[in-house]
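Researcher: Here's a chain I'd like modeled. Treat it as a single chain, no partners, no ligands.
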Amino acid sequence: MALSDCCTTTDDREMELTPHGTTDFPIACYHDDLSAAKVPWHWHDELELLLVSEGSIVASCGNRQYTLSEGDGLFINTGILHAMYNLYPIDGKKTHSCRLHSLVFHPRLIGGNPDSIFWQKYIQPILTDCTLSEILLHPTMTWQAAALKQLESAWHACVEEPDGYEFQIRNNLSDLLFLLFQNRQVSQNNTSTATLKNAARIKQMLQYIQAHFSENISITEIADSALISTSECLRCFHNTVGLTPIQYVKQYRLEKAAELLRSTDWKIMNIGFACGFQEMSYFARAFQAQYGTTPSDFRKNN
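Model: Modeled as a single isolated chain. Structure tokens:
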């Protein structure tokens, strides 16, 4: 199976559009270099498992943040809003190595038909447990070390494709999900109703920002999209994203500009305008502050 760098494309709900695997074998393996680019906020119906292979990362799931070092892993449940970035951001011209392996797969790969005993007895309880949005996997805990071993074995089989690799991957992930099923009561993070409501609001506001990022948008308009007050909007963004709504809009615009610089031959001025920047000097300064290089040099190097 082709090994890919993660390229997260989302729809107007921040739901990821990137297909993971194929209809008959719904799994994809990725190798992400977070020193080059972060994984932006998104969510998907598939389950995700990741293992830090080098350096340290910060993984955000809803309003929780985890610092993961080499050898640590993370399970992310279906529908959970998440993002990942380098623990040590670009420092001038110096970058800190930061890489991870990940598997993104549909639960039917393990559970089969929703009427099967595998789905009903083991998969469904995981998918529908609102307290089980993510589980940190640390190699110092016996059952988690076993889960990480299954994850690494499945990832290598996905990359190398030895004879019968489909069976191996399914077996590895079946054993891993059974470990999660057995230990989920110990690991659950007791997600409150307020936290779940906060996550739903954030999804609505991110949807609005993605649909209108090229326009002049205000905090009031962002708050209105989720039918909440501006103060509640500020609180939601602070608790989940760690930025103000306007800071997030600016960051999102710059990410879209970087995407257009990589994928189109549009003039830089037109990209700036398309991404909501009315002053090109401000666009250039903001871009350099976020990416450590000018838009033109970024395009040349990417």
